[in-house]
Amino acid sequence: MSNTQTRNEARTLTGAEIVLQALKDNGVEVIFGYPGGAVLPLYDAIFHQNAIRHILVRHEQAAVHAAEGYARSTGKVGVVLVTSGPGATNAVTGLVDALMDSIPVICLTGQVPTHLIGNDAFQEADTTGITRPATKHNYLVKDITKLAGTVHEAFYVAKSGRPGPVVIDLPKDILIGKGPYTEAPKTEHRSYRPQTEPDPAQIKAAVALLKGAKRPILYAGGGVINAGPEASRLLTEFVRLTGMPCTNTLMGLGAFPASDPQFLGMLGMHGTYEANLAMHGCDVMLNIGARFDDRVTGRLNAFSPNSKKIHADIDPSSINKNVKVDVSIVGDAGAVLKALLECWQADPQPQDRNAMAEWWRQIDQWRAKQCLQYRQEGSIIKPQHAVKRLHEITRELGRDTFITTEVGQHQMWAAQYFGFEKPNRWMTSGGLGTMGYGLPAAMGVQIAHPDALVIDIAGEASILMNIQEMGTLAQYRLPVKIFILNNEYMGMVRQWQELLHGSRYSESYSAALPDFVKLAESFHARGIRVTRAEDLDAGIREMLAIPGPVIADIAVAKDENCFPMIPSGAAHNEMILGAGQSGGVAGVTDEGKVLV
Amino acid sequence: MPTPTPCPKNRFMPDSIDPSFRNATIAVLVENEAGILARVVGLFSGRGYNIESLTVAPVDAERRLSRITIVTSGTDMVIEQIKAQLDRLVPVHKVADLTLEGPHLAREMMLIKVVGKGENRMEALRLADAFRARVVDATTESLVFEMTGAGDKLDAFIELMRPIGLAEVTRTGVVAIARGPRSLQS
């Protein structure tokens, strides 16, 4: 790529060079990828330049999760490069993960040359067909004159509106051929122009409802994180100004400071007692950037039965999908919050202060249940205690700390016991629930924040799903800390089997586990194993003091359940608080059992 | 062909029967590009929506636009979802629920083949005349009629032909447009 020519004249480049130039012009600094036959021309072009760094993963799924971690911790678009056929199909899980959690990712896939498409050629797969429902949008580039424009458009689509993954399928002859490089167009997209500014009339209606509320609640989700750190700041300002209680979804943790007295914790299936009962008992609910997911609502016909609901979302299809709302606001969470703040301040109507005080008294009664309380007794480490101590010790250290997780009990304990004060510090697979997400996501976070402390809170089963990425940690000297809560079970599966299937632990025991210390060592990392509660703090401190990657294998209580829990098919006010309280599983109906 | 669709069970409220269940004719203006039909059809199958009929053809070569007409059914909430889901597809320009937005015209075309001789053949021709169906092919033992109209008119004609030699039917599915000056393409 020559810089001698001026920017204005259309340069002729090879397809591979066009792709790299377009990535560079869209601010890309890192690609996560894995080479193969169909993308060799792109890898050759990567070899010839230094502007974009390529991170070689060990499996394509991990490349997408790494790009997700990169994107979610920076607010930028994550970029993935994989080859045709198996390269593309391996990436599909990551793509659906990014789709469900609205993470902006661009995935470049190799493809067999255009004249072979449809011939069942070697390493051919119908990538655009396979990824159509796995992406926000996808492209197959068959004309090199459209290549640069397609890449520019893909960035626009990936990051605007509700963000999501975009696939660009690149036949090998397009990468080798020569064509013009064109700059990103200044004009609007022909058909895709999501609304970001809210309708003032709807904002007014929302403020009128909120001002008159006696028991309001704000329920904020990942949309606030996606809207950028300013949206989280505005959210905090709005909550403090209005005196409302605030709860966050799993994806929204960090949007509002966990230590704030107005924070009720996470809501939903494993949310806090106070958050769920406040949702159930409120009279006005303001949802910003969350989607009334089944993990949040519980049984829909018993969900917050006596409230007026306001829903602000950038995706109109999220509104009135599961829950019928009274005021709908389409717009970017940041823009909505800004408008709400301005409208609130301009509105002369006073709040009902007495009612608000009464509401907080009620909430404090719920809080007094101390639903997250556990008893750490004896030598066996309670998993909750391990997460709590990890949080407290990292907070003492004062380093900027990023947490990723795998999926299962450990993920819920991390969400419950690790308090997040800032947005973009919490990376977890929410919608799809992808085991194996945490380690590659942590790699992506560490690449973006080389000096930060990045910890993957994992389970012993999940971590094995992408354990090969230990090789990537070693190659790039990424000092990721893997904190395994090892209960020798697929804990959440075991918990459901205990509660719903008569304690028949069918295939949920983690048999023949590796020696994680030796496993770490074989990948040039350090391994630590902690088995006794009295050694926990020292183990955590040792892990954090090691400058390179570490696996800390924490042996925890094997049969601990994750509470509170709203059994599937139950309502918010039918939650199980703890083992002592359950006595069989109240609230699980046959219909509930059908639900996942 | 259009048989009454039973109200499907709501995923989250298993026992509720929503009285707002209805048919909807939805017009979608899209980019005329490869894969657009697969996106729309995949959206319907992936999310479990009904398709009773679907037609598509280019309508503006210069602006590379095609128009899809979909007849579907669902509760008001589901139909609102269908519209919102269609609208968020990147190559979709506009979505309109013609059933909801005011009076509209809906037409189908059909080719129908009747095989028979003698009195049956004469009866077929007489009925075709009454229904304003055109004869577009004829042999001594067969007739092909072309007929345009609302779906129920086509249904009625098919039923009349059944006892007198109905051999084959092909229908376009519904195309629809709003009455009055409103336009999707403006």
UniProtKB/TrEMBL annotation, chain A:
Database matches in Pfam families: TPP_enzyme_C, TPP_enzyme_M, TPP_enzyme_N
Cofactor: thiamine diphosphate; Mg(2+)
Listed transmembrane segments: none
Annotated ranges, domain Thiamine pyrophosphate enzyme TPP-binding: 407-553
Thiamine pyrophosphate enzyme N-terminal TPP-binding domain span: 14-128
Catalytic activity reported: 2 pyruvate + H(+) = (2S)-2-acetolactate + CO2
EC number(s) stated in the UniProt entry for this protein: 2.2.1.6
Entry keywords, A to Z: Amino-acid biosynthesis, Branched-chain amino acid biosynthesis, Magnesium, Metal-binding, Thiamine pyrophosphate, Transferase
Pathway: Amino-acid biosynthesis; L-valine biosynthesis; L-valine from pyruvate: step 1/4; Amino-acid biosynthesis; L-isoleucine biosynthesis; L-isoleucine from 2-oxobutanoate: step 1/4
Record GO terms (molecular function): acetolactate synthase activity
UniProt cross-references to InterPro entries, sorted A to Z: Acetolactate_synth_lsu (IPR012846), AHAS_TPP (IPR039368), DHS-like_NAD/FAD-binding_dom (IPR029035), THDP-binding (IPR029061), Thiamin_PyroP_enz_cen_dom (IPR012000), Thiamin_PyroP_enz_TPP-bd_dom (IPR012001), TPP_enz (IPR045229), TPP_enzyme_TPP-bd (IPR011766)
Cofactor note: Binds 1 thiamine pyrophosphate per subunit.
Coiled-coil ranges (or none): none
Enzyme class per UniProt: transferase
Ranges for domain Thiamine pyrophosphate enzyme central: 203-340
UniProt similarity note: Belongs to the TPP enzyme family.
Name of the protein in question: Acetolactate synthase
Species assigned in the record: Siccirubricoccus soli
